[in-house]
Write a structure and sequence with these properties.
This protein has about 325 residues and is of the alpha/beta class. The chain is built from 11 helices and 13 strands. The chain has 3 domains: about 45 residues, no CATH class; about 130 residues, 3-Layer(aba) Sandwich (D-Maltodextrin-Binding Protein, domain 2); about 100 residues, D-Maltodextrin-Binding Protein, domain 2. Strand 1 and strand 2 form a beta hairpin. The protein is elongated and about 60 Å long.
Length: about 325
Amino acid sequence: MPESREEYPKISGKVFLRYTFISITDEIYSGGEKVTTRLILVKKASLCLIILLIFILLTGCGTGDQSAAPAPASDPATEQEGGEAKVAPQTLTVSAATSLTDVMEEIKGLYETRSGHSLVMNYGSSGTLQQQIEQGAPADVFISAAQRQMNGLQEGCLILEESRVDLLENAVVLIVPASRDSNEITDFNSLTKESLKLLAIGEPESVPAGRYAKEVLNNLGLWEKLENKIILAKDVRQILTYVETGNVDGGIVYMTDALTTEKVKVIAPAPAGSYTPVTYPAAIVQGTAARQAAEDYMAFLQGNAEAREVFERHGFTFIAGKQVP
């Protein structure tokens, strides 16, 4: 180890850098020239910084040739066919109102054959389906029997708002068991007759058909008169079962439901203006892992001629394409 400042120039650069570190430790503890030692440290750090900057510049600059850059990863949900992107077969979960069961099962076969995708259908009252989606149940597309449930999901940012459309329209009707010959029940106003003991409607808070039924009865001034005779059902299928089996004297359902069975007969449609239009909104659920397939399915429901024919044959009025504000 050198004993004086004059000996420093005799040390090579490599040894000098290493010796500077040693001398700093030695000087701190021996009371050496701290000023000189710190000056050497600054020079050493500056040299390291310069070398680091040069290294970054050399490695960071390219030749301008981008041909070696890696291609972006392809979407795992797509395949290339004839130079065009094609959505790979996927499984979609569709949550749909119970009143759509028959028509959606028929359309399911049409769509799966056309697209190659698979559909898992989940039917229930619109209120129940809304709660399932809110609680995180798997769903890619939701088709409600009323705006209320879809509005709730939209307010919670649980659907893709831009995908939402009014798809179908339905009518509210009064039905009785087909096996009964009584002519006493002829329209909604005749429901106050003594011959009607029980009337089945859906639960107004969770079943859209029930809410429409209550709206009709309220607007006709019949709700309070009939309230003690009303039996609440969990969905329209249960209303049909009650009426088919004769456990109730009448029921209020959608026209499309009444057409699914020969065991009930339609007595009368609800008077015009006695209820708000029965529309079925559809939308893609937020966070779907199969958005392309979901968009394809939505487009099929709205624009396929065969699908439209099926909807209308089942008693629906096809109104697809009307955007909901």
